[in-house]
Amino acid sequence: MQKIGVFVCHCGSNIAATVDVKKVVEMAAKEQGVFHAEDYPYMCSEAGQSRIAAAVKEKGLTGIVVCSCSPRMHEATFRKAAERAGINPYMVEIANIREHCSWIHKDMTEATEKAVILMRAAVAKVHLNAPLMAGESRVTKRALVIGGGIAGIQTAIDIADAGYKVDIVEKTPSIGGRMSQLDKTFPTLDCSACILTPKMVEAASHENITIHTWSEVEKVSGFVGNFTVDIRKKARYVNMDKCTGCGVCQEKCPSKKPLNEFNRGLNTRTAIYTPFAQAIPNVPVIDANSCIKLKTGKCGICEKFCQVGAIDYTQKDEIITEQYGAIVVATGFDTIKLDKYGEYAYNESKDVITSLELERIMNAAGPTKGHLERLSDGKAPKEIVFIQCVGSRCSDDRGKPYCSKICCMYTAKHAMLIRDKYPDTNVTVFYIDVRTPGKNFDEFYRRAVEDYGVHYIKGQVGKVMPQADGSLLVQGVDLLDNKQILKKADMVVLATAIEPNPDVRKIATMLTASIDTNNFLTEAHPKLRPVESPTAGVFLSGVCQGPKDIPETVAQAGAAAVKVIGLLAKDKLKTNPCTAKSDELLCNGCSQCANVCPYGAITYEEKLINDHGIRRTSRVAVVNGALCQGCGACTVTCPSGAMDLQGFSNRQILAEVDAICR
Amino acid sequence: MPVNNENWKPTIVAFCCNWCSYAGADLAGSSRLAYPADVKIIKVPCSCRVNPMFILRAFEKGADGVILCGCHPGDCHYSTGNYYARRRMTLLFSMLDYLGIEEGRTRVEWVSAAEGVKFSETMNSFVEKVRTLGPSVRLGDLRCKN
């Protein structure tokens, strides 16, 4: 028989305003086995925790129920408090009377009744709790960063600087990511490559960093501190040890049709290519879909011209298996597809482009060598219209409900750069709101308007109509003047919404990290744990978690690195003791539990069993506590009811059911 | 057995997995998205921890509806748990229907940690459905009561 203490928290007025806490205390005191019941304004405070300790000491309590906020918030707090008071931390149960009660119900009688029932269920459960001891597991002192953009690079450098080994896995042929495609960066207008490439070089030359480009994560197993990851190193068809990066192969390659992904498909590249001049590693890859030799067996020109014999058409994909203690997701973003936005004529006219495409056009290494030209006829545009929020802040299912956050600023940047370089080109921006929260951001936008004469119109564009003379007619509305506008333009630039890299879904599934409705990875807590995933040992860096500009991405990358370092600095981790346990007297060794276990935690042993005085040898299931993650799949599968989950046992859950339904 | 009594309150047991749906319920709470107080949540580590026995027991003890919420298919924290739950519940619910516990009293719903709105909407619609069905007495009747 447990001696239980019930502690009801007011949470200021968060609970007390809708739940009659005194009534809950009164009802708790009537429950069987409850030897102590009290309420306190803030149970989680130092004073609240001391009251728990005092009650444990005074009344000799063996179990604790705290009626408070969600266990996701303060379960750990109260478990520690219990431990300090000298009882096993797993003798604590939380009745969630805030998130699941006071915050959603308005009627005090109803909410109080519900709070009492939740309290009863928790009391009923604690009666059946047993002390549990956390085991220990070792930590592999190596981190994996998935994605080699600025987020991944910064995270890797910060972890490596602290003395831990880091691997970066990047699916494209080079690290650098989206930032390497940008021409200039706001609000300072410094050149993107100039600030990024030193970081790329630093990462590549760091003794603690290994970079796997042209590689993808194939499989992840294990758990925090002990992940096993299969990485597919895609066939490059170029020997990385021999290649000197001279570039002759690319000059000579006769296959010149494939679209250049780095330039957003605005021009073409060769079948053997490095995506851009500063690529790291500076070793080309052969695109097997366009290589004549790989497709037909004829050609082999690159092999002939390669001075060092680096070309190897026989290369195959290779799977390497590595161990990691922590994994950082830094998979970044892409712009959305514009198929659903027919009104902007993106697919009809070459002169309607996305902002990222403009970025490449403005870049000296881009398809037009940095000259601002119309892609249709190569003429310099005299009238440019920018359209904001294309697919962002969208109420229907064509676009995204969120603000992409970076578009207002990069559009101001583009407008300013164009007006600076081509003063006779007029720039008009259609916007819903101009959002410039950030250091020196609003000043930057004001400069675009005041110093550079960029014409901002508050209103949306309904239609872009390509004209016979090659120009574009933009039909929009000026909300401030309350009038329709028809504007002739030579070029239209769409501030296209950003979305998480489509691959992130696959990666999240492998990592069992949760993802929100917009495919952004969910953080463990939106305010207090923004760089951790709810899955222990998995961390988030950059836009995969939500839209961000470069400074924010770098800041979050550093924060993720600190969390990883904090994990890798530990020699051992405490494991979750709520694991499955088999009752050897009941188990008949049928193997069904092992079949459903996702962790391979169950094995079978021949054991000598003392069955009520009768000794017999029997094949029984044995659970490896270090591998078991406590999902409970086996407990329901077990036909003889031998398997049970500690902390969530059949009897405990049934007791809760009974308490709720009584 | 539908009742005309407006004040009748059903007893609803909601099993929520720790990783997605319980967090979704927390989000519904912190976003103040109301749903009826009839719903009482029991936390389980994973939807696959829910033994059909728990659901039978709930009906036996007087529950009028039981709902099981887990991570979306493919998003299970334990990779495959919700698939087991889905199969088990499909079977169980059809058996319960056969026993006279109508289909509308049982439900499986996938609610992610980010779907506070969905959690609240689900609970509202489920409670509404159970209200139209009235008290569940079937499984209670099957047992000998003293």
- From the alpha carbons, calculate the radius of gyration of chain A and give it in angstroms: 31 Å
- The CATH architecture of chain B can be named as 3-Layer(aba) Sandwich
CATH class of chain B: Alpha Beta
Number of strands of chain A: 32
Report the largest inter-chain contact.
A-B, 52 and 51 residues
Helix content of chain B: 40-55%
Structural class of chain A: alpha/beta
CATH architectural category of the largest domain in chain A: 3-Layer(bba) Sandwich
Helix and strand succession of chain B? EHEHEHEHH
Helix-and-strand structural type of chain B:
alpha/beta
Number of strands of chain B: 4
Descriptive tags:
heterodimer, A: 662 residues, alpha/beta, Rossmann fold, FAD/NAD(P)-binding domain, 4 domains, 5-stranded parallel sheet, 32 strands, 28% helix, globular, B: 146 residues, 4-stranded parallel sheet, 5 helices, 42% helix, 16% strand
Describe the structure.
The complex is a heterodimer of chains A (662) and B (146). Chain A has 662 residues and is of the alpha/beta class. Chain A has 4 domains: 4-126, Rossmann fold; 142-234 and 317-332 and 501-568, 3-Layer(bba) Sandwich (FAD/NAD(P)-binding domain), CATH 3.50.50; 334-499, FAD/NAD(P)-binding domain (3-Layer(bba) Sandwich), CATH 3.50.50; 580-646, Alpha-Beta Plaits (2-Layer Sandwich), CATH 3.30.70. In chain A, 28% of the residues lie in helices and 24% in strands. Chain A is built from 18 helices and 32 strands. In chain A, the strands form 11 sheets. In chain A, strands 10-7-6-16-27 form a 5-stranded parallel beta sheet. Chain A has a 5-stranded parallel beta sheet with strand order 18-25-19-20-21. The two termini of chain A are 21 Å apart. Chain B is of the alpha/beta class and 146 residues long. Chain B has one domain: Rossmann fold (3-Layer(aba) Sandwich). In chain B, strands 2-1-3-4 form a 4-stranded parallel beta sheet, with helices on both faces. In chain B, helix 3 (81-99) links the parallel strand 3 and strand 4. In chain B, helix 1 crosses helix 4 (116-133). Chain B is globular, with a radius of gyration of 15 Å. The relative contact order of chain B is 0.25. The model of chain B has no long low-confidence stretch (mean pLDDT 90). Chains A and B meet through helix 4, helix 5, helix 17 and helix 18 of A and helix 1, strand 2, helix 2 and helix 3 of B.
